[in-house]
Specification:
Oligomer: single chain
Mean pLDDT: 95
Low-confidence stretches: none
Shape: globular
Order of helices and strands: EEEEEEEEEEE
Largest sheet: 7 strands, mixed
Strand content: over 45%
Length: 118
């Protein structure tokens, strides 16, 4: 079972930035898809961004609401995925979850709170 531990959440003012980290352990595959999802109060969990690396290259996918503001990256040597979040807005407030997916193996982190407020 893959374990995921998120960090980097917190309180930030509108227009500010945060970087989330997700450290993975326990039988990691370099070809797995990793990503970030978020869940705001009273709403369903939604995709934020995913990243997949192979011998051909790296593919990134973003939700329309974060495209151009958020950047997902991955350091396979450290088994860590990052989410750089810029120009944060109150509507970005949510619990952010890290996700690992390889075949039928799916793992979730415990989540980290991001609050955007003045």
């Amino acid at each position: 079972q893959v374990q995921l531990v998120e960090s980097g959440g917190g309180l930030v003012q509108p227009g500010g930035s945060l970087r989330l980290s997700c450290a993975a352990s326990g039988g990691i595959s370099g070809s797995a898809t990793m990503g970030w999802y978020r869940q705001a109060p009273g709403k369903q969990r939604e995709l934020v961004a995913t990243i997949f690396s192979s011998g051909i290259g790296t593919a990134r996918n973003y939700a329309g609401s974060v495209k151009g503001r958020f950047t997902i990256s991955r350091d396979n040597a450290k088994n860590t995925v990052y989410l750089e979040m810029n120009s944060l807005q109150p509507e970005d407030t949510a619990v952010y979850y890290c996700n690992y997916r390889f075949g039928d193996r799916v793992s979730w982190g415990q989540g980290t709170q991001v609050t955007v407020s003045s």
